Automatic annotation (TrEMBL):
GO biological process: leukotriene biosynthetic process
A family per Pfam: MAPEG
Subunit (UniProt): Homotrimer. Interacts with LTC4S and ALOX5.
Membrane-protein topology: Multi-pass membrane protein
Protein name: Arachidonate 5-lipoxygenase-activating protein
Keyword Flavoprotein recorded: no
Residue intervals passing through the bilayer: 32-51, 86-112, 137-158
Subcellular location field: Endoplasmic reticulum membrane; Nucleus membrane
Gene Ontology molecular functions: enzyme activator activity; glutathione peroxidase activity; glutathione transferase activity; leukotriene-C4 synthase activity
Main location class: endoplasmic reticulum
Organism: Carassius auratus (Goldfish)
Gene3D superfamilies (alphabetical): Membrane associated eicosanoid/glutathione metabolism-like domain (1.20.120.550)
Length: 180
């Protein structure tokens, strides 16, 4: 791979810097594309939540402090409270370990967060399953982060690299997230 990155023409004694930058950009994008996609989907979901709150607040027949507005506002606030944690563990798990299981868990988390938000609009007890499932996904992503960091430290200090084995396990374990 290094020989491909160091493409030289017969007249040059040094590699072409533009070619190296293009290859580095492609390599980085290959490693984070799914994470970027999940992040953008989560932003769209946040916009949807904000629009629902705004619509309820400015509705013709609604009062600013009605019960429906309070539930919507509380659900939106609860979703926004966990949002930074979700983004941090999503990106950490994807970069330190494997982006595919992290992105899959991220998509499942967004679906669960939608279920939580919609469940909160009814009775608050309807949102409990979404809340608990979301906690489980955040725990899985946090575990992926910790394992990825530990593997990196083991590689740096002990010379042992278990990343391939760990990635196989996390890919299999991410499917278990679908179980209720």
């Amino acid at each position: 791979m290094l020989s491909v990155m160091l493409k030289m023409t017969p007249q040059q004694s040094e590699p072409d810097p533009q070619f190296i930058l293009e290859n580095m950009f492609e390599a980085v994008m290959d490693n984070i594309f799914l994470l970027v996609l999940v992040t953008l989907l989560s932003v769209v979901q946040n916009v949807f939540f904000a629009l629902k709150v705004e619509k309820e607040c400015t509705g013709q027949h609604s009062k600013p402090h009605s019960a429906a507005f309070e539930r919507l506002s509380c659900a939106n606030r609860n979703c926004m409270d966990t949002y930074p944690t979700f983004l941090a563990v999503l990106w950490c798990a994807g970069i330190c370990l494997s982006q595919a299981p992290a992105a899959f868990a991220g998509i499942i988390y967004l679906v669960v967060r939608q279920k939580y938000f919609v469940g909160y609009l009814g009775q608050t007890c309807q949102s409990t399953p979404g809340f608990l499932f979301g906690k489980r996904i955040l725990f899985f992503l946090s575990l992926m982060c910790a394992v990825g960091i530990i593997n990196h430290l083991m590689l740096s200090y002990c010379g042992s690299d278990y990343k391939e084995y760990i990635q196989t396990i996390t890919k299999a374990a991410s499917a278990l997230l679908l179980l209720p």
